[in-house]
Design a protein that fits this description.
The protein has helices at residues 20-44, 53-77, 109-118, 135-143, 157-168, 216-238, 253-258, 268-278, 299-324, 330-340, 345-362, 371-392, 399-402, 407-415, 417-428, 452-474, 478-511; strands at residues 13-14, 95-101, 125-130, 147-150, 173-177, 182-183, 200-205, 208-209, 249-252, 282-286, 288-289, 291-293, 524-526, 532-534. The chain is an alpha/beta fold and 536 residues long.
């Protein structure tokens, strides 16, 4: 990944068109992958593989869950689709842009936000939904012809401000934009035309970033989104289930009004999306980059963001999704259930890292399998996954910036298992957490509640290796060493995967000590001739 802040980040980018050959390639690879999965699953459920029935059942459920998620990604790509054309918007549409400001957000960031919004090609009215109680935000808004609304002390955080503004305004179409995003002049040109179809409730476009060069965490956070905003959302669009995200989404007012306004919660964007689809509205996903914003730059801020999202999505999984499923199409149900269960990755990972520790301390194992056979049967699935992942990158919105292995994103995902697990626990006990905007400037620090479990696991793993060596060197007969060698090495290898991933997370957290706490937008210049440049 090119890590430099470049002028071409501010050029219009879009995913390539989907051809019949592309779909044929996905179909062929998917069929091969599904056959490989069938062979592995058939082998997995042999009676002689059961060592501890209770643990084997849990292990098998988690194993099937993981395999099913992989297969769903493949199936999603079978319907990958991009709008055949972007309709030219009708003239004289009434359009509003809502952006918010909250206590703690830096005033200087809004200068570029307002300048860029003023440069939008399509006529519109921009509203600042302000809850800072700082007169400087009002003065800056009025300087850039932005309508300032004092919405301090309203319940419902961001969504509460949006709903109050809906009551005070009349525009037919509303773009909801996060304040850290700098829009391109043609943003609305890429969304408004789709509303010529009266059944379209919202139009979502991709998200791009411009501060991913700042740190390991920033790069990893951005990497986690590239595939989602490319082929994944394009596949969801093909199945009629493209979802709304918290920023860069343009809504039809009547669609929001039909569900009683913007949903309120930690995952209010996904909740709003579900409700709009449940009311029978359609959505469009246009895979174009027409704005760039910020990702968290330090590990602590990233984990706080993930905790908020995970807690909100779990809340939807238990409270919102069951009641709306009957109103959704089959593929919409499948999509929302898949998204709603994504953060189960946390507790499932906790179970998988527990297995080796249990085995080496008690000799209890959920299964008794030939590890070599598992590798042989699992290798084709891994190969197909890599090939599909590589081919899907043809549909990234900005291949020059986004194409790659995305290993940093994977490290951050594995390192967040304590965050996801904690969010799941908070959901089970029904404990709420506040809606806090993600930090826009890096926060220095290393030790925090999110990195401590990673450090603890690494220490336990190293102590476990020492214990295994001592036990096998001095206390186990040679005949037994031979019989237990394969399972022992398999368990060590299994635990080693987590150890390496967690070292990456610890490294990301440690690097946060050395991040220069400066804003990313100070080098971005938005000019009155509708250009965005990088300051030398």
């Amino acid at each position: 990944m090119n890590s430099k802040l470049r002028n071409d980040l501010w050029e219009f980018k879009e995913a390539k068109k989907v051809t019949g050959l592309d779909k044929a390639v996905f179909l062929g690879l998917t069929l091969a992958g599904l056959l490989s999965i069938f062979n592995l699953v058939e082998w997995w459920f042999k009676g002689e593989h059961i060592s501890n029935l209770f643990l084997f059942i849990i292990l098998s459920l988690f194993f099937l869950y993981g395999i099913l998620r992989v297969a769903l990604v493949w199936v999603n790509y079978l319907r990958i689709q991009k709008p055949k054309e972007v309709p030219v918007p009708e003239k004289n549409l009434s359009v509003a842009v809502f952006t918010t400001s909250a206590p703690g957000e830096p005033l200087s960031m809004f200068e570029n936000t307002f300048k860029a919004l003023k440069n939008l090609n399509y006529p519109h009215t921009t509203y600042l939904l302000d809850s800072t109680e700082d007169i400087a935000f009002k003065e800056l808004a009025e300087k850039h012809d932005v309508v300032w609304l004092d919405l301090a002390n309203l319940p419902g955080a961001k969504a509460g401000k949006i709903n109050e503004t809906l009551k005070r305004t009349k525009e037919e179409f509303i773009l909801i934009l996060d304040p850290d995003h700098i829009v391109f002049p043609n943003f609305l040109d890429q969304t408004l035309g789709f509303f010529q179809d009266d059944k379209i409730g919202f139009v979502q476009v991709s998200q791009g970033y411009y501060n991913m060069y700042r740190s390991f965490t920033a790069k990893g956070a951005a990497e986690q989104t590239y595939t989602f905003y490319g082929p994944t959302q394009m596949g969801l669009y093909g199945y009629g289930g493209a979802v709304a995200i918290g920023a860069n989404c343009t809504f039809r007012r009547t669609a929001l009004e039909s569900i009683g306004g913007h949903a309120q919660g930690l995952a209010e964007d996904l909740q709003t999306s579900i409700r709009i689809h449940a009311k029978g509205w359609k959505s469009v996903y246009n895979p174009v980059i027409v704005s760039r914003g910020l990702v968290p730059e330090d590990f602590t801020s990233f984990c706080k963001q993930q905790l908020k999202w995970a807690r909100g999505v779990f809340e939807l999984l238990f409270d919102e999704i069951p009641g709306t499923l009957k109103h959704l199409t089959f593929w919409q149900k499948l999509s929302y259930l898949s998204i709603g269960t994504y953060y189960l990755f946390g507790p499932i990972t906790a179970f998988f890292i527990f297995i080796p520790l249990l085995f080496f301390t008690t000799k209890i194992s959920p299964a008794s399998m030939d590890f070599t056979e598992f590798i042989i049967l699992g290798a084709p699935i891994l190969l197909v996954s890599i090939l599909i992942y590589a081919y899907a990158q043809r549909f990234l919105c900005d291949k020059k910036t986004e194409k790659g292995i995305h290993w940093r994103g994977m490290v951050l995902k594995y390192s967040c298992w304590p965050v996801f697990t904690y969010a799941f626990y908070l959901t089970l006990i029904n404990k709420k957490i506040p809606y806090i905007p993600t930090a826009k400037i890096a926060v220095k620090g290393f030790l925090n509640p999110f990195v401590k479990p990673l450090i603890l696991y690494c220490i336990v793993f190293l102590l476990m290796l020492v214990g295994i060596y001592i036990e096998r060197r001095y206390y186990i007969p040679e005949s037994e060493l031979i019989l237990t060698a394969e399972k022992t090495w398999a368990m060590i290898g299994f635990a080693m995967i987590a150890f390496i991933q967690f070292l990456g997370g610890i490294g990301a957290a440690f690097k946060s000590l050395y991040i220069t706490a400066e804003n990313a937008w100070s080098r971005v210049v938005v000019t009155t001739d509708k250009k965005i440049k990088i300051k030398k």
